[in-house]
């Protein structure tokens, strides 16, 4: 199976925008049939574990594993996740790291992002000539999910450019789930609604978050995210 991209558009304009603000969006990234195939696969609930931050560690547990816990323990778990989040650290969302055993639609999108053509375009847009490959994960943010402020540049890893491919049609910006950027001091700057079929690219040193998905969101926020690495 293959997933295909549309023509990426005017590289010089995209590069100028990236240079100006360290973030740029490519709209209408995937070809229509490929987009439908991916959107259909990404909504299947079985793919995801809940990723969250607790006791200073990144953890993962499926819905079934959480449901098996006594109700009081479940409540305490979310209380603990929230009390760390209140201090500005942490996250809760559904995550599926794309690996060999992943659904073929997920592998195909990662293959596209690693194709010579896409890699060359991303290098040209970001002026990062040393990019070698992309890793990826499918993510699902449900009501109550969030990812607090952070940067993606982790010591010891070779992440250079973060990407987010929006795979939810008809997202309402009042539902939350915005990709929010900040100044270093925490002042909010731009926020992007996770618009369908847009590929957002940003510098891994930019401070950002995914805002809380509100209790009245009528959909889940799905995307494929990851990093172009050197
Ligand atoms: O989903 C997004 O918009 C951004 C995700 C993100 O910042 C991350 O996974 O590090
Ligand atoms: Fe991030």
TrEMBL record:
Keyword Transcription regulation: no
Cofactor annotation: L-ascorbate
Protein name, as recorded: 2OG-Fe(II) oxygenase superfamily protein
Pfam family, one: 2OG-FeII_Oxy_4
PROSITE patterns for the chain: FE2OG_OXY (PS51471)
GO biological process: regulation of translational termination
Record key words, sorted: Dioxygenase, Iron, Metal-binding, Oxidoreductase, Vitamin C
Keyword presence, Transferase: no
One GO CC annotation: cytoplasm
GO molecular function: iron ion binding; L-ascorbic acid binding; peptidyl-proline dioxygenase activity
Occurrences of domain Fe2OG dioxygenase (ranges): 132-230
Species whose genome carries this gene: Colwellia chukchiensis
InterPro entries tied to this protein: Oxoglu/Fe-dep_dioxygenase_dom, Pro_4_hyd_alph, TPA1/OFD1_N, uS12_prolyl_hydroxylase
Top-level taxon of origin: Bacteria
């Amino acid at each position: 199976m293959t997933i295909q991209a549309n023509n990426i558009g005017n590289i010089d304009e995209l590069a100028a925008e990236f240079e100006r603000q360290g973030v740029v969006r490519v709209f209408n990234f995937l070809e229509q049939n490929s987009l439908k195939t991916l959107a259909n696969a990404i909504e299947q609930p079985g793919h995801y574990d809940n990723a969250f931050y607790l006791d200073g560690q990144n953890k993962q547990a499926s819905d079934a594993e959480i449901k098996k816990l006594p109700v009081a323990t479940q409540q305490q778990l979310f209380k603990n996740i929230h009390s760390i989040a209140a201090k500005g650290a942490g996250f809760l969302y559904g995550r599926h790291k794309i690996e060999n055993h992943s659904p073929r639609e997920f592998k195909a999108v990662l293959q596209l992002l690693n194709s010579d053509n896409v890699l060359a375009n991303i290098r040209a847009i970001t002026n990062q000539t040393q990019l070698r490959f992309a890793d990826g994960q499918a993510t699902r943010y449900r009501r109550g999910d969030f990812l607090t402020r952070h940067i993606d540049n982790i010591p010891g890893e070779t992440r250079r450019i973060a990407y987010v491919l929006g795979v939810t049609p008809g997202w309402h910006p009042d539902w939350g789930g915005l990709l929010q950027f900040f100044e270093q001091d925490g002042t909010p700057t731009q926020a992007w609604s996770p618009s369908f079929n847009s590929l957002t690219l940003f510098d891994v040193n930019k401070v950002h978050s995914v805002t809380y998905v509100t209790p009245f969101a009528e959909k889940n926020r799905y995307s494929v995210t990851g990093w172009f690495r050197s």
